[in-house]
Amino acid sequence: MRIYFTFEPRPDLCESLLAEFPQVHFVFERRLSHEELTQADVLVTYGEDVTEEALQYAPNLKWIFVASAGIEKLPAQAIMERSIIVSNVRGIHKTPMAESVLAHILALKRAIPWIYEQQQKSEWSKKAKQSELYGSTALILGPGAIGSEIGRLLQAFGVKTIGCNRSGQTAPYMDSMTNFTQLTDVLPQADIVIAVLPKTAETTHLLTEVHFRAMKNSAIFMNFGRGNLVEEHVLLHAMKAQEIGYAVLDVFEQEPLTADNPLWSLPNVIISPHISSHSSRYVERSLAIFKPNLAKWLRGEGDLENLLDLSRGY
């Protein structure tokens, strides 16, 4: 059994793998090598380096473990044709991403950026425009592992949570639920709209001009899922027309965001360069999912955690 990592975990994490699975030959590199692929039974990757061409060099490959939640860059059709199993680390992002979302919300509500600006100017002023998070309503698009953790934290602050998914079926830490087709009906209730949806055909350009017009003009819109959710020109118009109060964006249609993109200069837009899930414990949490799955795999069991259906995109 040969397992090929296209990234290199910390030395202590590598040592832990070697100690727990002495029967496995591990290869740790910082790139994808066609030569190593020819011998790999299992591939562990962040998912952005696997191409259809690369798969041609991997005749023995049976399982791809993606140390990320997003799988949209994988060559899905080629993988399905080979019947290669794919699993990911869905759920490990919930702590850092929920903390990132909450940090941005509290910063805006309590005027933290303004306070920092006053300090830089050595100016004593009490003219901050501050409001409370308590008693507000948050609409969470995609109340899965990440969205539910955001809901849990928001409820602790006295926020009413409304979850929205394709089915409208109940989700943890949501006071009520709706579905995509009823979205315009609930948007006027929301003080904060938080999107943590995956990239699928159904979520592509899900939000349109109609949805932004339905939001409160004081609403905070946050996209921490995928940039395909809304066309950039739609978002630009909404912000320039001040149809909503703020947009906090961690993801974009085209990444990285070019230096001349007009989003940078809008005063009611906050740019985060797709880092909301970053954490010093990221790889540690990824391996906490990989190792039990590997133990199952070695025993010949097929019920791995976070198995993906590439035909559906998640």
Automatic annotation (TrEMBL):
<dbReference type="Pfam" id="PF02826">
    <property type="entry name" value="2-Hacid_dh_C"/>
</dbReference>
<comment type="similarity">
    <text>Belongs to the D-isomer specific 2-hydroxyacid dehydrogenase family.</text>
</comment>
<dbReference type="Pfam" id="PF00389">
    <property type="entry name" value="2-Hacid_dh"/>
</dbReference>
<protein>
    <submittedName>
        <fullName>Glycerate dehydrogenase</fullName>
    </submittedName>
</protein>
<feature type="domain" description="D-isomer specific 2-hydroxyacid dehydrogenase catalytic">
    <location>
        <begin position="31"/>
        <end position="300"/>
    </location>
</feature>
<keyword id="KW-0520">NAD</keyword>
<dbReference type="InterPro" id="IPR006139">
    <property type="entry name" value="D-isomer_2_OHA_DH_cat_dom"/>
</dbReference>
<keyword id="KW-0560">Oxidoreductase</keyword>
<dbReference type="InterPro" id="IPR006140">
    <property type="entry name" value="D-isomer_DH_NAD-bd"/>
</dbReference>
<dbReference type="InterPro" id="IPR029753">
    <property type="entry name" value="D-isomer_DH_CS"/>
</dbReference>
<feature type="domain" description="D-isomer specific 2-hydroxyacid dehydrogenase NAD-binding">
    <location>
        <begin position="102"/>
        <end position="276"/>
    </location>
</feature>
<dbReference type="InterPro" id="IPR036291">
    <property type="entry name" value="NAD(P)-bd_dom_sf"/>
</dbReference>
